[in-house]
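User: Last request for today: this protein with cytidine-5'-monophosphate, please.
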Amino acid sequence: MKRRRMIYEGKAKILYEGPEPGTLITYFKDDATKKATIEGKGVLNNRISEYLMTQLNAIGVPTHFVKRLNMREQLVKEVEIIPLEVIVRNIAAGSLSKRLGIEEGTALPRSIIEYCYKNDALHDPLVSEEHITAFGWATPQDLDDIVNLTIRINDFLSGLFLGAGIKLVDFKVEFGRLWENDYMRIVLADEISPDSCRLWDVTTNEKMDKDRFRRDLGGVVEAYSEVASCRNRCKARPEVRFWSNEGTRFCYAEKRRSRSAGKSHRQRAARARLCWRRRCAPGQGDRYRTGGAR
Ligand code: C5P
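Assistant: Here's the final one, the structure of the complex with cytidine-5'-monophosphate:
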């Protein structure tokens, strides 16, 4: 058997050389930190990221995603990663609350975009647009594209999640340069998952993201499963999959109130498990089990 070449290993993912030039394979690990793992996290993040990237592609946001290969792997286009973490905040939480003394949960007067320089040794410091262009990490034109894409991503994902009873509190995205012949365009890269987003239950504000692990709250896999199941809730009502640049989140919220809306994420997780057991009942499996693992 041919051994594939590893390009890079991070905390949550491994990148391998892809089957063709210009492609890579992303392997999603279960690791939460260097020492701790959350069993099954990689499988769920692979699914969630696949779904979100596909939906974003469908509204015209260019991404590096090509296809999911199996439970833990995706085929992606090789891009030149811009060394920035782009953070969007809709509600105060995490480092913003600590840094500025704003109570967690305070709705921000407008969405805020922050940038961190990707550098482990320096602990990804917060930087300004001035630093980014002065040090050549991105050009002013790159930054314009990044901001425009980030605003669209935030608008679309806020609506998508709210329609499934989840608040998008904040998230981190990364971008890369994709070269096609002589042309370059900025595309969304990396992943979007509960590892890189803060997601709260819309009624109870229960955390459904990596903060459950960071703050030792337990129920990490249940919360990630619940986020993964929002994919099914959205699929169940294709007729309301429309969007506009303005007010997307409200369109989604109004049109896609699911049967489980208003219930806590634990109740919805129980319902998702029940539905799953019904689907797996004898005679039902073939209808639902298409492709890879669920
Ligand atoms: O920690 P902080 O509040 O700055 O995080 C803001 C958002 O960015 C959170 O959703 C967090 O999960 C994400 N983030 C990330 N990777 C980092 C830093 C932050 O995914 N290195």
